[in-house]
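On clarity, I found the account of how folds are encoded harder to follow than it need be. Since the whole study asks how a given chain folds, the encoding of that fold should be made plain. The format is easy to grasp once an entry is in front of the reader. For illustration, here is how one protein appears when written out as sequence plus structure tokens.
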Amino acid sequence: MESIKIIVADDHPLFREGLKQALLRIQPTFNIFIAANGNEAIETLEAEAVDLIFLDIRMPGRDGIEITKCIRKFNTTVKIVVVSMIDDRISIMKIFKAGANGFLHKNTDICELHKVIEIVCNGVLFIRRNCGV
């Protein structure tokens, strides 16, 4: 897998760092930007040609659904994967209606993370809910 530019947007520092480290285990040459909220993700996307965004659904201020809608107004090519503990059908439908390319439950392992990157970057929608739901 070639090196791609990725934004990790989540309001929890430990989760952001953990996801960053997991991504670097998959591909050490990934260029990863960190955002503590949706507005920082948008600012980074406006400054950098990013390929993929991992975006939490619940963050202070505007949530991941609002941020996805906002991003889609000015960028239709970046791939957006919403990552959350929330995985009810209504929320997932809202995520995809807003323009996301994927949904990933936060209990996903690194093998599944690798898989979602390949699938979404190849233009296919991806949903991975909690195994118990």
Q: What stands out?
A: The chain has a mean pLDDT of 91. The chain has one domain: 5-128. The domain at 5-128 is CATH 3.40.50.2300 (Rossmann fold). The beta strands are 5-9, 31-35, 52-56, 79-84, 102-105, 126-128.
